[in-house]
């Protein structure tokens, strides 16, 4: 567990830096273009390459030294940050260099992620999976808990360039940390017989498709990613419609305490089964509070609703993570996680692709001052800029609740729950 904690600490530092950059890029693009669709496009460029390169990273993680893959992935991701920094410094106007930079950064993150996840399986026992996964959720929470608040303060006294420089510095710290403990991290010997690259990617897909219960769970998580992707993309333009970047950063940071608390609860309490039930119930609760986020412009209420939204996310992610690890052989974990990432995060791709367009060309006009729904829904949640996005979040949240109920009654999902409970009680 100590070796895992060393890697976790390094990645925590890196995630704080990348979270600051993600926040700053969203604000910068919105202020530059004033378009929710542009923010959605920037988010898509930041995630799509990582998703597409995950299967390749998965094969590399099973072929080569996973420790070295983590170092290379972090180091080379700096290239994208430098492109953004140089373009701004030299006065290049427009969002195109920003899109190129975040896309390149995303490519190397995609190559890194499967090696990172597979290494966690190498270091922990099955009894430690839930605790390890919860700690990963805590590190992920830093993107919402620490990064937005710090980035919001920095943007009030400086610009995006300072944040990019700090992000680069955090990556250097992470790489140095991993290198210092590299000799003490177990080296998983690569597969002896290396077949064609595409064949190994297909093999990773077969490992998942062979088990129908695993396939159902992956599809469920793809739906979760789709819904979360919508609020992830649209929360910034919705809040910036009536507040500034500092307020946005404060709301995201304070509300994300919920994710930290949720992660602490999971890491401190030993779960003895009930993973599927917890997953479905958390899915429903998340949808409920997502819908409530769209009902108000009151900052205190928004903080409360977002707090509860983030509180339930670690339970969803941890339960899904444990269930998948318990059903996938360790020798194909790299390829499996590569395929899992691209299949589940396809939900993000769809959300990032359509959310900005739906907001700008459908929902925003509906809740404009003279919009079709101004005299009905508008009387409840308000009209004007950002309220169409709010209505979009309400519909999305309610849809999450319905989907959770439907999945909860599926026989395959129930079967996985009973099987995992049997393993835990042995």
Automatic annotation (TrEMBL):
Segments traversing the membrane: 12-30, 36-56, 68-88, 94-112, 133-154, 160-181, 217-242, 248-267, 274-293, 299-324, 336-359, 389-409
Major facilitator superfamily (MFS) profile domain segment(s): 3-415
Plastid in keyword set: no
Subcellular compartments: Cell membrane
InterPro entries documented for this protein: MFS (IPR011701), MFS_dom (IPR020846), MFS_trans_sf (IPR036259)
Keywords: Cell membrane, Membrane, Transmembrane, Transmembrane helix, Transport
Organism lineage: Bacteria, Bacillati, Bacillota, Bacilli, Bacillales
Domain of life: Bacteria
Major location (coarse): membrane
Record's bilayer topology term: Multi-pass membrane protein
Entry protein name: MFS family permease
Pfam families: MFS_1
Cleaved signal peptide residues: none
């Amino acid at each position: 567990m100590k070796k895992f904690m060393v890697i976790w600490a390094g990645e925590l530092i890196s995630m704080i830096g990348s979270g600051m950059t993600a926040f700053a890029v969203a604000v910068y693009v919105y202020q530059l273009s004033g378009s929710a669709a542009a923010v959605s496009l920037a988010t898509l460029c930041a995630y799509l390459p990582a998703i597409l390169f995950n299967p390749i990273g998965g094969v590399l993680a099973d072929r080569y030294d996973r420790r070295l893959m983590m170092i290379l992935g972090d180091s080379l991701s700096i290239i994208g940050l430098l492109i953004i920094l140089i373009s701004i410094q030299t006065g290049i106007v427009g969002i195109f260099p920003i899109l190129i930079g975040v896309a390149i950064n995303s490519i190397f993150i995609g190559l890194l992620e499967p090696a990172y996840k597979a290494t966690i399986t190498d270091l922990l026992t099955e009894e430690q999976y839930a605790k390890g996964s919860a700690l990963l959720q805590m590190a992920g929470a830093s993107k919402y808990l620490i990064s937005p608040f710090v980035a919001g303060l920095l943007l009030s006294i400086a610009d995006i360039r300072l944040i990019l420089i700090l992000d680069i510095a955090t990556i250097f710290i992470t790489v140095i940390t991993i290198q210092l403990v590299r000799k003490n991290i177990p080296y998983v010997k690569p597969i002896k017989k290396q077949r064609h690259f595409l064949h190994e990617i297909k093999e990773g897909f077969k490992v998942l498709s062979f088990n129908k219960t695993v396939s159902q769970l992956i599809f469920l998580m793809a739906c979760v990613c789709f819904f979360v992707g919508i609020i992830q993309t649209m929360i910034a333009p919705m809040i910036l419609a009536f507040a500034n970047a500092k307020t946005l950063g404060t709301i995201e940071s304070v509300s994300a305490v919920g994710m930290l608390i949720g992660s602490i609860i999971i890491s401190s309490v030993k779960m003895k089964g009930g993973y599927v039930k917890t997953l479905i119930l958390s899915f429903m609760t998340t949808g409920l509070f997502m819908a409530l986020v769209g009902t108000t412009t009151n900052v205190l209420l928004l903080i409360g609703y977002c707090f509860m939204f983030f509180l339930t996310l670690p339970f969803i992610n941890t339960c899904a993570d444990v269930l998948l690890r318990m059903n996938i052989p360790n020798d194909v974990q790299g390829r499996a996680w590569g395929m899992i990432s691209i299949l589940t995060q396809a939900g993000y791709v769809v959300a990032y692709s359509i959310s900005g367009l739906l907001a700008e060309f459908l929902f925003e006009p509906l809740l404009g001052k003279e919009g079709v729904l101004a005299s009905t829904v508008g009387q409840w949640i308000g009209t004007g800029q950002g309220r169409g996005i709010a209505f979009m979040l309400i519909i999305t949240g309610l849809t999450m609740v319905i989907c959770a109920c439907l999945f909860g009654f599926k026989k395959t999902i129930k079967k996985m729950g009973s099987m995992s409970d049997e393993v835990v009680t042995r």
